[in-house]
Amino acid sequence: MGKVAAQIKVMPESPDVDLDALQERLEQSIPEGAKINGFERDEVAFGLVALLPTVIVPDDTGGTEAVEEAFASVEGVESVEVGEVGRL
Model pTM? Predict the structure, then answer.
């Protein structure tokens, strides 16, 4: 069984969302079997900053769908989009 790393772009609902608190909520929502291997931040525009967690998931669990769904249900999240994906 291999593992897959994916960078996921998480857009907050507004520039007023506390990114540190949002990051904590994302860490708490991660499904069993997956783990977050760090966060980056990307300034999008007009004060809006996206969080870019790198997520490690087993490749036999259906990819990143469970993580995407978990992140999308977190308070303060506007959208979730998978960016780069690769095998470890």
Answer: 0.91
